[in-house]
Amino acid sequence: MSASQSPEQRLIELELLTTHLERDLATLNSVLLDQQKEINLLKQVIGRLDERVARLGPAEDEPRDPGSERPPHY
Question: Of 11, 23, 30, 63, which has the fewest Cβ atoms less than 10 A away?
Fold first, then answer.
């Protein structure tokens, strides 16, 4: 916007800019809500996987000595 524009033209440009910004804000809000839904879903999945790993893990009363274990390629 230059100072040589008429007030009416400047107002029109400001209204157009506001309209575009409102549209962009609505789009960003929508994307943010979708991301939050996905984050919540992934948190649930990770929680279930943590529970499964905890159930499958070695018992506390069985100490392991990594030095005496054979590597998987033997």
Answer: 63
